[in-house]
TrEMBL record:
Subcellular location: Cell membrane
Record's GO cellular component terms: plasma membrane
Residues covered by the DUF2179 domain: 231-287
Alphabetically ordered keywords of this record: Cell membrane, Membrane, Transmembrane, Transmembrane helix
UniProt superkingdom: Bacteria
Protein name per Swiss-Prot or TrEMBL: Uncharacterized membrane-anchored protein YitT, contains DUF161 and DUF2179 domains
Keyword set includes Oxidoreductase: no
Keyword rRNA-binding applies: no
InterPro entries: DUF2179, N-reg_PII/ATP_PRibTrfase_C, UPF0750_membrane, YitT
Topology of the protein relative to the lipid bilayer: Multi-pass membrane protein
Organism per entry: Algoriphagus alkaliphilus
Transmembrane segments: 12-38, 58-78, 85-105, 117-138, 159-177
Length: 298
């Protein structure tokens, strides 16, 4: 069902899978904070990072900070992204506060700083990813990043890096260089884990092949690997020493997972050792045939 961003889609808000994702994600994030990050003064990026800095430096209640700092971003999300998103994000933030309050963890799981940074980042990234899949957020920085990107020449990545660099700078000033370095490790671990959860471990890749044996390559990809293909009419040749020589050919493009790219390239090179490939990572695929439906190539 398509709904306007100006209306709350209560069916989406109360969807059992969305609620399950959000609850599981908030629990993972709370464990990351209580068991690994807060005891070692390690930061995540965004609102959570700002709240931790102010809590540890000035003793302001962490729960008050999480709500107070997130509120402007939630309001911006309500206005600019959608009311359903804002409701789910507000639920996520308050649920995080409740779980942090009742979670029976009083000290760090380990005193090893590397393990704390890695596992804190993994759990935080897992939590954020699950919450995003559920339709919400616990960090309003994602909202302002999207808003600023639309009104500036900077990309979302550049804005995120700039804002979080400021947070890590304050961490270095207040807590020392070493905690700041571990915080950077925590942050980048969380980023990668979030990407895996949101986009999936089988990230899709566009594989383009230019080959003199294009008919055999097309048959191999479709019949043996069970993949759909798109074909562009083009020309190959135009080498520096023989620029005047060219040949018509079919340029073949297919969408595969990154786990399948190497095996497919190897088999195609058995048909044409001089085949030309280029690979592009793509963020999202919809429609068409993207799952393998044919027999597995041996």
């Amino acid at each position: 069902m398509i709904t306007s961003r100006q209306n709350i889609d209560w069916e989406a808000v109360f969807d059992p899978f969305s609620i399950l994702y959000i609850v599981a994600g908030v629990f993972c994030a709370a464990v990351a904070l209580e068991a690994f990050m807060l005891p070692n003064k390690f930061l995540d990026g965004g609102v959570t990072g700002i709240a931790i800095v102010l809590n540890l430096r000035f003793g302001i209640n962490l729960y008050v900070l999480l709500v107070a700092i997130n509120l402007p971003f939630l309001w911006l999300g309500w206005k600019k992204i959608g009311k359903t998103f804002a409701v789910q994000s507000t639920f996520s933030v308050f649920l995080l506060i409740i779980i942090l309050e009742i979670l029976p963890i009083e000290k760090a799981v380990t005193n090893d700083h590397v393990l704390s940074a890695l596992f804190g980042g993994i759990l935080m990234g897992l939590g954020i990813g699950l919450i995003i899949r559920g339709g919400g957020l616990i960090d309003g920085f994602e909202v302002i990043t999207e808003f600023v990107e639309k009104n500036s020449p900077l990309s979302a990545s550049e804005i995120t890096i700039f804002l979080n660099s400021l947070i890590m700078l304050f961490a270095a000033i207040f807590f020392g260089i070493e905690p700041a370095m571990y915080s950077i490790l925590t942050y980048f671990t969380a980023i990668k884990m979030t990407d895996y959860v949101v986009e999936g471990f089988e990230e899709y890749t566009a594989l383009t092949i230019i080959s003199r044996e294009h008919d055999k390559v097309k048959e191999l990809i479709v019949k043996e690997f069970g993949k759909a293909i798109s074909v562009y009419k083009g020309e190959r040749g135009y080498l520096p020493e023989t620029f005047h020589i060219k040949h018509p050919c079919d340029i073949i493009m297919t969408v595969v997972t990154r786990l399948e790219v190497h095996r497919m390239k190897e088999v195609i090179q058995q048909i044409d050792p001089k085949a030309f490939f280029y690979v592009q990572t793509i963020k999202e695929v919809k429609g068409g045939v993207i799952k393998r439906v044919g027999k597995k190539h041996s």
